[in-house]
């Protein structure tokens, strides 16, 4: 009888396991503490990989830069062969005319190929813009080769001139002798082997091109046999 009373007098805490002891005994493996060393190795791997990739690209760019520095490709040589001006009309504020121009583009490199793209031709009288045109084609020139470039600028590409410039060019035309300036802007690409193409935006100036007119119809041609164009830095 005494034994029964002692059993009934046990507290609830003595009969049931506590929440803390239950969690300790039946905790899932996923909550177990991961090794500290593996976390450190994993956290340091990503920065090391990023640093290796950055260093690889830096060294690669440095090698390419030094390679092009050693190769040192030469600028293309451009010569204006002919310039014909026709169908001139003077009407304030425009000096309208057709311009037929032929260039020779020469790749003077013995080991490097040349790509010519985004060509723009501008015809000026002093500082006044007369006409301009952007060519939609590109040219490929192998080592030590040349190509002819023909440009036709028509009257629909004329620009308005200032009064002073219009007066001066009209006076020169009345004397059958006009000095034009031609500018040639282009993107030159140099290529050799597996190296990435090196590109440069260049501008060539063909200055003091004297055109002599032979008739009142406004037809004239370049007096000299041609002129070399200089690179404008």
- SSE run: HHHHEEEEEEHEEEE
Looking at the chains present, what oligomeric state does this protein adopt? Answer: single chain
CATH architecture of the domain at 77-231: Sandwich
**Inertia-based shape:** elongated
β-strand percent reads 35-45%
Any overview of this molecule?
- The protein is 29% helix and 42% strand.
- The protein is α+β, with helices and mostly antiparallel strands and 233 residues long.
- Strands 1, 2, 3, 4, 5, 6, 7, 8, 9 and 10 form a ten-stranded antiparallel sheet that branches.
- The chain is elongated.
- The N terminus is likely disordered.
What keyword list fits this structure?
233 residues, alpha+beta, ten-stranded antiparallel beta sheet, disordered N terminus
Short description:
The protein is α+β, with helices and mostly antiparallel strands and 233 residues long. It has 5 helices and 10 strands.
Task: Explain the layout of strands and helices.
Layout: H1 2-8, H2 12-15, H3 19-26, H4 36-71, E1 77-91, E2 94-106, E3 113-125, E4 128-134, E5 139-141, E6 146-153, H5 163-174, E7 177-191, E8 198-213, E9 220-222, E10 227-231
